[in-house]
Amino acid sequence: MILLLGKIVLGYLIGSISGSLLLGRLRGVDIRTQGSGNAGGTNAFRTQGPWFGLGVGLIDVGKGALAAWLGGLGAPDGTPALVAALLTGAGAAAGHVWPLYHGFRGGKGVAVLIGVLLLLWPVALAVLAAVLLLVLTTTGYVGLGSILAGWALVPAAVWLAPERDRSVWIVATVVIAVFILFTHRSNVSRLRAGTEHRFERIRVLARLFRR
Question: How many domains is the chain built from?
Answer without folding.
Answer: 2
